[in-house]
Design goal:
about 5% strand; mainly alpha; two-stranded antiparallel sheet; 4 strands; about 190 residues; Hypothetical Protein Ta1238, Chain: A
Length: about 190
């Protein structure tokens, strides 16, 4: 259980922060940028939920919880050394990735095939889901960059890759199951 009885600690005033294993790194480190962008994604999901209801809101709530799991995963280096921690280490699992895939397939089965790219927009919910999609793509790029430098849980990378797809399909659902999608018209303004 997490207990937060003090919000500021002053330990980061010098430009460093603590990782999940207690080590300290610069706040500009790729690892910090990756899990910070996961947190940013979670905030955008919170905005999207203001416009969601039913199954989409339930899915977004699950994703918000997963994003905290993902942040915890990314803030702890060296997954191969988890056994040395002396306690269970929170990591994204293949089951969480599989759940996203199942939900994507279920939503996508309700949609007509696309004949053009979709412009971000439509309903307020769809617009916020497209924003969540693009921020999660940035988080994925940072996590991939991190994985090129240090070890990263592969399931975390898979989760981020599926997550942006989930947001895309959910945005189409939010746009009257794709009927209100705003489609790109190449060269329309020439």
């Amino acid at each position: 259980m997490v207990v937060l009885n003090r919000i500021y600690t002053r330990t980061g005033d010098g430009g460093e922060t603590a990782l999940g294993d207690g080590s300290r790194v610069a706040k500009t480190a790729t690892r910090v940028a990756a899990y910070g962008t996961v947190d940013e994604t979670n905030s955008v999901v919170g905005l999207a939920r203001l416009h969601a209801g039913g199954a989409l809101d339930e899915g977004l709530q699950r994703i918000q919880n997963d994003l905290f799991d993902l942040g915890a995963d990314l803030c702890r280096p060296a997954p191969e050394r988890d056994g040395e921690a002396g306690h269970p280490v929170l990591r994204i699992t293949p089951e969480q990735v599989a759940r996203l895939e199942t939900e994507i397939d279920t939503m996508n089965a309700r949609l007509a095939a696309l004949r053009s790219f979709v412009l971000p927009g439509g309903t307020a919910l769809a617009a916020h889901l497209h924003l969540a999609r693009t921020v999660s793509r940035r988080a994925e790029r940072l996590a991939v960059e991190l994985a090129a430098q240090e070890s990263v849980n592969p399931a975390a990378l898979h989760y981020l890759n599926r997550l942006s797809d989930w947001f895309f399909v959910a945005a189409r659902i939010a746009n009257d199951e794709g009927r209100a999608d705003v489609l790109w018209v190449p060269g329309a303004n020439r």
